[in-house]
Amino acid sequence: MYSVAMSTPERLIESTQELLWERGYVGTSPRAIQQRAGAGQGSMYHHFKGKPELALAAIRRSADERQSLAEEQFSGPGTAVERVANYLRRERDVLRGCPIGRLTQDPEVVADPTLRQPVADTFGHLTLRLTAVLTEGQALGQLDPELDPADTAATIVAVLQGGYVLARAADSVEPFRRATEGAIALLAARELR
Amino acid sequence: MYSVAMSTPERLIESTQELLWERGYVGTSPRAIQQRAGAGQGSMYHHFKGKPELALAAIRRSADERQSLAEEQFSGPGTAVERVANYLRRERDVLRGCPIGRLTQDPEVVADPTLRQPVADTFGHLTLRLTAVLTEGQALGQLDPELDPADTAATIVAVLQGGYVLARAADSVEPFRRATEGAIALLAARELR
DNA sequence: GTCTATAGTTAGATAGAC
DNA sequence: GTCTATCTAACTATAGAC
């Protein structure tokens, strides 16, 4: 299942990441993790205290990976609107949904501050970075100064997360495409030329 | 738990609606449903074939309820933008999330066409109604005719669903408020005066 | 480090008495 | 219609051998 040699703890973490993405915390059993990782019962409990500890490691890693991916678009070239559009149009596995946003629907994740923290941090960081991109665009005279950067940043992140929801409901990427293109058009109308 | 007398099947359906909202399909057990409804094992299986049949009844009812609620704002008074703003600002239990959108994160719901159908219908209907409101606004000369009504409608529904995600991640309604107000401001900028 | 054995609990349902 | 009994499997571990 893994092309390169990987330690047992690594395989356990990656398997947990995948299962949390597909089935959430409530829907993921230690047994399923072990089978996907090709590790035995005793092996898993030797490296991790239990499901919560393993889940925390997996959630933290997924959160870090998403933040790095987002940063690629934000720090790229182009105007503020172009960079936002690049972010929204980035190639995504839309029907699989967002591995981080998905966790907000899990009762045990939101109820546990430790598990929820990396999720909160990811969206907090994302929103701050987008706010900075928009503010920079205003400072450079590219964007209408009347635009509220923080509100607009939240709108953009929400469109993305909501786009996933609509796509999964419809079992089609079409609503995701419409939602993101609609947002890009609304933002582009505020560009100064 | 219920103020008025209610039949056992009714109590089972309402309990299932609540549990699906809170914990999703995967996280909801027949046992938990029975306890919340104050019904016994045999009673539940007498009225419903099993968990899937009961869940379908509950999902259908939640879907109908949401569509009725939305219709109140759409058919109300005001310009197109005002009606959209009323919809986005409607009083909501933001931290509980959307009972329908929530189901899109459930692997067993999206994998079962029968369970997914009411969810797809709800967002399909919602998007069509919003598209009609925006198109009407354009016909009345209230809204920029350059705006794509279908894309913008999808954007609005996505902002709402994504707003819930951000709020639950932050355990605060603030990101939801920012996302929806940001969207309203973007849309208001396209109003013609 | 990994394996097997064991164990209490819950999931999801069926059978049959009342 | 509702209740209790019963059932197979899975869940989430712990213990101890290797």
Describe the structure.
The structure is a homodimer of 193-residue chains. Chain A is mainly alpha-helical and 193 residues long. Chain A is built from 9 helices and no strands. The radius of gyration of chain A is 19 Å and the shape is elongated. At the A-B interface, helix 7, helix 8 and helix 9 of A face helix 7, helix 8 and helix 9 of B.
Quick description:
Two copies of one chain form a homodimer. In chain A, 69% of the residues lie in helices and 0% in strands. Chain A has helices at residues 8-23, 30-37, 41-47, 51-74, 80-89, 107-111, 113-139, 149-170, 174-188.
Q: How would the blueprint of this fold be written?
A:
The structure is a homodimer of 193-residue chains.
Chain A: H1 8-23, H2 30-37, H3 41-47, H4 51-74, H5 80-89, H6 107-111, H7 113-139, H8 149-170, H9 174-188
Helix pairs in contact in A: 1-2, 1-4, 4-7, 5-7, 5-9, 7-8, 8-9
The first copy, chain A, binds a DNA duplex (18 and 18 nucleotides) through α3.
List keywords for this structure.
mainly alpha; elongated; 193 residues; homodimer; DNA-binding
The pLDDT mean of chain A sits at 96
Spans of at least 5 consecutive residues with low confidence of chain A? none
In terms of quaternary structure, the protein is: homodimer
**Large-scale geometry of chain A:** elongated
Could you state the order of secondary-structure elements of chain A as H and E? HHHHHHHHH
